[in-house]
């Protein structure tokens, strides 16, 4: 049984002010529904977590500096950062497992990264990697640390990707296969609904300054 899961993802100073990403009416939210959705997907998939019973979250953003950003649309509609660029949250699940999430577009880090840490009754696992196709990743080679309870850790490294888009290609191929062969997709609509509900609870907690249930 898992007792604790921590899911973190950060980018080095890329909050994209001026693009649709940072305009509330167009995006609906900031880093929590961007990077956060992927980190929550991983958290729920790896642990098969039940429903959350309580969430506590905080949202923050730094002032945007015109000219010091990456604008996805190629023109500055607005230099105002209307959404959060950093989100932190704690989640209590029905089975007693505690989850923690930390995501940021503009963190004080040396490079972009993703870290997932799982702790259970028999030991712990820590993954250090990077999702997507950033060219400023902190970890040049993904690695997994396995620590059996009461024993020394073991490290496993993975070769760097030769195709940075391989994960997206696999998703597209699997989706097409499900359509052609009328198969059930590995990730169901219910899985997506569960992740969205959790994001909504985190936003609710942050906006009200209270624990959301």
N-to-C CA distance:
23 Å
Give the topology string: H per helix, E per strand: EHHEEEEEEEHH
Number of helices: 4
Which parts are unreliable, with pLDDT below 50 for 5 consecutive residues or more?
68-76
Q: What is the strand content?
A: 25-35%
The major beta sheet can be summarized as: 8 strands, mixed
Strand order, largest beta sheet? 2-3-4-1-5-6-7-8
Q: What overall form do the CA principal axes indicate?
A: globular
Mean pLDDT reading:
86
Helix content: 10-25%
Work out the radius of gyration: 18 Å
Question: What's the total count of β strands?
Answer: 8
Helix/strand class: alpha+beta
Please tell me about this protein's structure.
The protein is α+β, with helices and mostly antiparallel strands. The protein has helices at 24-27, 35-47, 166-181, 189-208, and strands at residues 2-10, 52-60, 86-93, 98-104, 113-120, 123-129, 143-148, 154-157. The protein has an eight-stranded mixed beta sheet. Helix 2 (35-47) crosses helix 4 (189-208). The longest helix has 20 residues, at 189-208. The chain starts with a strand and ends in a 5-residue tail after the last helix. The model is unreliable at 68-76 (pLDDT under 50).
Secondary structure elements and their pairing?
Layout: E1 2-10, H1 24-27, H2 35-47, E2 52-60, E3 86-93, E4 98-104, E5 113-120, E6 123-129, E7 143-148, E8 154-157, H3 166-181, H4 189-208
Parallel strand pairs: 1-4
Antiparallel strand pairs: 1-5, 2-3, 3-4, 5-6, 6-7, 7-8
Helix pairs in contact: 2-4
């Amino acid at each position: 049984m898992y007792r604790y899961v921590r899911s973190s993802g950060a980018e080095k100073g890329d909050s994209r002010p001026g693009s649709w990403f940072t305009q509330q009416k167009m995006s609906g939210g900031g880093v929590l529904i961007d990077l956060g959705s992927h980190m929550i997907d991983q958290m729920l998939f790896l642990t098969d977590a039940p429903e959350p019973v309580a969430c506590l979250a905080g949202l923050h953003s730094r002032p945007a500096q015109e000219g010091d950003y990456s604008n996805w649309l190629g023109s500055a509609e607005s230099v105002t950062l209307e959404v959060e660029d950093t989100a932190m949250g704690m989640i209590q699940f029905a089975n007693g497992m505690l989850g923690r999430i930390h995501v940021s577009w503009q963190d004080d880090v040396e490079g972009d990264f993703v870290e997932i840490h799982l702790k259970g009754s028999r030991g712990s696992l820590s993954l250090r990697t990077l999702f997507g196709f950033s060219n400023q990743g902190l970890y040049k080679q993904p690695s997994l640390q396995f620590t059996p309870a009461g024993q020394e850790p073991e490290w496993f490294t993975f070769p760097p990707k030769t195709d940075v888009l391989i994960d997206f290609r696999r998703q597209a191929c699997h989706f097409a296969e499900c359509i052609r062969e009328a198969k059930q997709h590995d990730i169901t609509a219910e899985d997506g609904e569960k992740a969205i509900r959790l994001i909504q609870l985190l936003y609710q907690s942050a906006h009200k300054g209270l624990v959301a249930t």
